[in-house]
Amino acid sequence: MRQSKFYIPTLREVPADAEAKSHQLLVRAGFIRQSVSGVYSFLPLGRRVLRKLETIIREEMDGIGSQEVLMPALQPSELWEESGRWRTYGPELMRLNDRHDRTFALGATHEELITSLLRDEVKSYKRLPMVLYQIQGKFRDEKRPRFGLLRGREFIMKDAYSFDMDEDGLDQNYDEIFKAYQNVFKRCGLDFRAVIADSGAMGGKDTHEFMVLAEIGEDTIAYSNESDYAANVEMAPVKISYTKKEEEQKDLSKVHTPDRKTIKDVADYLNVSSEDCIKSLLWMVDDRPVLVLSRGDHEINDIKVKNVMDAETVELATEEQTKEILGCETGYIGPIDVPESVTVIADYAVTSVVNGVCGANEREMHFENVNPERDFTVDRYEDLRFIQEGDPSPDGQGTIVFARGIEVGHVFKLGTRYSEALGATILDKNGKSSPIVMGSYGIGVSRTMAAVVEQLHDENGILWPTSLAPFDAHLICVNPKNASQSEKAEALYNDLKSQGFDVLYDDRKERAGVKFTDADLIGLPIQIIVGKRADEGIVEVKERKTGEKEEMSIDEVNAFLRTFFSNR
Ligand code: 9G3
Q: What domains does the chain contain, in order, with CATH numbers?
């Protein structure tokens, strides 16, 4: 492709609102343009990368027997009424009315749609197992779209759905698709981890997220420094057997703690460590008051509280609710003599406190020498805290380290959550009817493209892996006005094209500096520079990633490229 004829609006300056590196580079290198917040156009270079990424995904999904479909973005609200999600999803679900005033959702995901597509026609076990997938634009009205393609309001997703007779079948499909995902992200040149994740509102059980390690990532991964254990920090269990300190239990005593509310202030004031404090927070769990206790140096994980209490909603009580239920403000509440209506649950670590400190449910008062079970009772001890760096890895091997990650894939075992809600049943070989067992599997396609740039760039621009680069090589004619340079460049361009290489040929009447800066910004893996030594039949070949340059005769370029691309 001749660059003089190809639309690549590169920019020198960094777009003001672009914080993420991938956002800055994809805009500056002319791959994408924002239309409104969170909504982007893919320009020719961006479209080419997307197409290569989609091809990798199709090869891996088709390779395990999945079948590609294309479902509508317009989804009748009736389907979401049937699944109950029309009400549970708020403003994030984009809704609209048609001219007949019928209501629709703009597809954020397609569990309901695909279940409705099958429920009337897939009735016999002979049709299963089956995996259908699509690559399509999704709509989610994010409250704060940011970081370019990393969190958009319209984005491209590959979403797949598996259909089986039973859980064993689901497990098999899940494992196969899990492996296909590993292939996809490996072929994209990404450094990623498959982490154990919380199924959240999806209602399934097993679920994994595929995380690309990057500082800009919004998720925190807890992984072991000695095994391949990795979990979303929200999900990571804490497996520690706590030991009580060997210390005589002293008499409980109330102490005045003027304006000392935080664990740190109280611990400093009473000259104890935060580990000797019991932190009490009042939560409304499905609107019932639950006092949740943790050791002063730990943080309560609301996802764990929700899972342990099997609750729909878990919210921190407001100051008013706390005052009304426990008689004082948050900084002074504690587990001693709480009203019957308040359930008390505690993280296991609380059992290790001896002669500790806790709030006295009285303004500016705390208790000293508090001992669990002597001074207060706990309805349930559970694993309720966030795992911390340095904790032992839950698999017993090594200790936990944190890393930031970008979620590029998510796989769920849904079970019969949607087939029951939408009446998708199947007859087994004994003629018994049962709901189809489903799984759902997503890859954020446009997000993955940005994640590649987050991991693979340098100070001059993008470093595309050969698997995704919009072209194989950037052929640069340094000075098109020089007859010998432009003749040699033209000849080489036609030769490489006829050899099947995808070449972007910079034939523009621009200064050399502009051409080199643009080539480094766009980031094709190889640059072939036809310059001063063209009339000797010598060109310079530069590998973008390493910066290594090599002079060679023009008729060696072909062989060089063949070797370079065959090793990838
Ligand atoms: C919504 C909105 C946002 C959502 C969802 C629904 C996330 C929603 C989870 C999934 C599960 C899987 C198929 C592909 C893989 C992921 N955000 N999820 O269901 F209405 Cl507004 O999307 N879906």
A: 15-220+401-454 (3.30.930.10), 253-382 (3.90.960.10), 471-566 (3.40.50.800)
